[in-house]
């Protein structure tokens, strides 16, 4: 029976800990969340970290300690964000790979991001991609818009396959400024992906459920977490990341595609052994 890869994105760079006390921001909170989410059915964790004041940071020492602690406490595939926060420099975003994660996000283009701009010019994309190949870190291609799919084709055409050889994408839908989080757009994006690519999808905010149901129905995989939505239902805030994973896992089981365990996910994503 085919299974479902579930990625949890527990923190992100945008939500404010003071306004959202359930957001995991310390290393202890992150590892505790990761353990709960693994037990609930997650196989990958997409990681953003925070500093002492709960502000987003790409501090190299903290990233390295985070990778070590997640490996120690869980079997999850550790995927560090190279997107960071909209204020992070390209140099700091490239240096994320110094923490030697299993995997990293790699966004394939610039996108309006609410009132901000998430900047990913071609020069940065190709530098980051080549660095992932040298360091053997498996990229997950984050696609916020259909133009990003075109850039992914260009990247693979010019620089060849990623570390491990398998192309896995994440459709990030419903960002104000990116592609809408609806089934029509999901189908168009999936149809445009490179042959042989696999994909997950996540819908931001109120697009969470339509994108989740659409992805399951179309044979895709799932990303959930408080990076992407802070509401479990209308008027009911998310209490903990694991409840989003539990819901995704339950729906995956109902779809006859139960959650993939981390060992299976490592083979599926072609994560090199370390
Ligand atoms: N925080 C966003 C500006 C990623 O992790 O690679 C970018 C983001 C994408 O979250
Ligand atoms: Zn992220």
Quick description:
The protein is α/β, with parallel strands linked by helices and 274 residues long. Helices cover 38% and strands 19% of the residues.
- Using only CA atoms, what is the Rg? 17 Å
Widest β-sheet, arrangement of strands: 1-2-5-6-9-10-11-12
Number of helices: 9
Number of strands: 14
List bound small molecules: (5S)-5-amino-3-OXO-hexanoic acid, zinc ion
User: Major sheet: size, sense and barrel closure?
Assistant: 8 strands, parallel, barrel
Structural class of the helices, strands and pairings?
Answer: alpha/beta
Helix content: 25-40%
Tell me the series of helices and strands, N- to C-terminal. EHEEEHEHEEEHEHEHEHEEEHH
Distance between the termini: 29 Å
Any idea what the shape is? Answer: globular
Give the averaged pLDDT, no decimals.
98
Task: Describe the secondary-structure layout.
Elements: E1 6-8, H1 27-40, E2 44-47, E3 49-50, E4 56-57, H2 60-73, E5 77-80, H3 90-95, E6 103-107, E7 111-113, E8 116-118, H4 122-135, E9 138-143, H5 146-159, E10 168-173, H6 183-192, E11 198-203, H7 208-217, E12 221-224, E13 231-233, E14 236-237, H8 241-254, H9 262-269
Parallel strand pairs: 1-2, 1-12, 2-5, 5-6, 6-9, 9-10, 10-11, 11-12
Antiparallel strand pairs: 3-4, 7-8, 13-14
Helix pairs in contact: 1-2, 1-8
Bound molecules: (5S)-5-amino-3-OXO-hexanoic acid and zinc ion.
(5S)-5-amino-3-OXO-hexanoic acid (KMH) binds at residues 12-13, 81-83, 85-86, 105, 107, 113, 118, 142.
């Amino acid at each position: 029976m085919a299974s479902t890869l579930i990625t949890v994105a527990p923190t992100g760079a945008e939500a404010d800990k003071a306004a959202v006390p359930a957001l995991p921001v310390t290393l202890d909170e992150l590892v505790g969340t990761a353990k709960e989410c693994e037990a609930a059915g997650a196989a990958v964790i997409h990681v953003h970290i925070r500093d002492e004041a709960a502000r987003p940071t790409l501090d190299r020492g903290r990233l390295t300690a985070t990778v070590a602690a997640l490996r120690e406490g869980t079997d999850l595939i550790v995927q560090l964000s190279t997107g960071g926060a909209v204020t992070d420099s390209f140099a700091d975003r490239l240096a994320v790979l110094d923490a030697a994660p299993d995997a990293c996000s790699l966004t394939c283009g610039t996108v309006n991001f609410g009132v901000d701009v998430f900047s990913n010019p071609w020069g940065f994309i190709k530098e980051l991609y080549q660095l992932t190949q040298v360091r053997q870190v498996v990229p997950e291609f984050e696609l916020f818009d259909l133009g990003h799919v075109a850039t992914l084709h260009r990247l693979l055409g010019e620089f060849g396959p990623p570390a491990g050889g398998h192309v896995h994408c994440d459709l990030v839908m419903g960002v104000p400024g990116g592609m809408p989080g609806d089934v029509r757009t999901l189908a168009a994006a999936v149809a445009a992906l490179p042959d042989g690519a696999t994909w997950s999808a996540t819908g931001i905010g109120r697009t969470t459920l339509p994108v989740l149901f659409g992805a399951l129905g179309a044979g895709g995989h799932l990303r959930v977490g408080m990076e992407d939505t802070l509401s479990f239902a209308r008027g009911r805030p998310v209490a903990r990341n694991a409840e989003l994973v539990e819901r995704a896992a339950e729906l995956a089981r109902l779809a006859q595609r139960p959650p993939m365990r981390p060992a299976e996910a490592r083979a599926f994503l072609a994560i090199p052994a370390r």
